[in-house]
TrEMBL record:
PANTHER family: MANNOSYL-D-GLYCERATE TRANSPORT/METABOLISM SYSTEM REPRESSOR MNGR-RELATED, MANNOSYL-D-GLYCERATE TRANSPORT_METABOLISM SYSTEM REPRESSOR MNGR-RELATED. InterPro entries: Bact_HTH_transcr_reg, Chorismate_lyase_/UTRA_dom_sf, Tscrpt_reg_HTH_GntR, UTRA, WH-like_DNA-bd_sf, WH_DNA-bd_sf. The keyword Transcription regulation applies. Residues 9-77 form the HTH gntR-type domain. Keywords: DNA-binding, Transcription, Transcription regulation. The keyword rRNA processing does not apply. This is GntR family transcriptional regulator. It comes from the Bacteria.
Length: 244
């Protein structure tokens, strides 16, 4: 596939789809290294920012993993297993389990999100939250939320997020109730020094990694988030029900 410059489809998306097709057809088998950013720029005559956005999109879809100083490598395909889970605020679910949840807000900013996140929240203007969550005073979770700025502009100035859950704030302030969502959970290696330091683990350690898009009662996007759970302080419990 070639890049069509007159197409309304963004260049990064075209490049991502071209690389995706190459991965899915076996041109780049699991474990193989993709061409470098410079090689992709030259091969497809696009800028480095376009290449980086395309690689971010593939990493978001679990097709590749990027390693600093080494490049991007194709991952083994993972078997999807669908499970139904209760969409409860973390504050409530931890209280039920007998833990005291506390929160520290690290960042609360208006940003231009990465392209794949802008696609998820439906706009290129986002409120970015980065928070540390503690169970009985011990950090166990780093979470990053991206919310559409046009829907929740007052969130940028809110000082309530260390006292109430984000879902409680959105329901009370905007009548936007977290109702449904699509969550992916997997084991992943930490490749960001900041997250490793925040969780007090080594770089490339395996952690429980979540990503989710959440929708409100009107099926509008509420948020996109990513979270990293400390491997020794989190246990995933799932209630199973068979449908006849």
């Amino acid at each position: 596939m070639s890049i069509e410059r007159n197409s309304p489809i963004p260049l990064y998306f075209q490049l991502a789809e071209t690389l995706r097709a190459a991965i899915e057809t076996g041109a780049y088998p699991p474990g193989s290294k993709l061409p470098t950013e410079g090689e992709l720029c030259e091969q497809y005559d696009v800028s480095r920012s376009v290449v980086r956005q395309a690689l971010q999109s593939l990493a978001h879809d679990n097709l590749i993993e990027t390693e600093r100083g080494r490049g991007a490598f194709v991952l083994e395909r993972k078997v999807p297993i669908a499970l139904v889970q209760q969409l409860d605020p973390l504050l409530e679910s931890m209280a039920k389990a007998g833990f005291k949840l506390t929160t520290r807000v690290l960042k609360q900013e208006r940003i231009k999100p990465p392209a794949h996140i802008a696609d998820e929240i439906g706009e290129n203007d986002a409120i970015f939250l980065e928070r540390l969550r503690y169970a009985d005073g011990v950090v166990f979770l780093v979470v990053r939320n991206y919310l559409p700025y046009s829907r929740f502009p007052d969130l940028l100035q809110s000082n309530e997020l260390e006292r109430v859950s984000l879902y409680q704030y959105l329901a009370k302030r905007y009548d936007a109730v977290a109702t449904t969502g699509k969550r992916q959970v997997e084991l992943a290696r930490i490749n960001e020094e900041a997250i490793a330091a925040q969780l007090h683990v080594e770089m490339n350690s395996y952690v429980l990694f979540n990503r989710e898009v959440t929708y409100d009662q009107n099926k509008q996007v509420l948020e996109y988030y990513e979270s990293w759970h400390h491997p020794d302080r989190t246990r995933l419990t799932i209630d199973l029900h068979r449908t006849y």
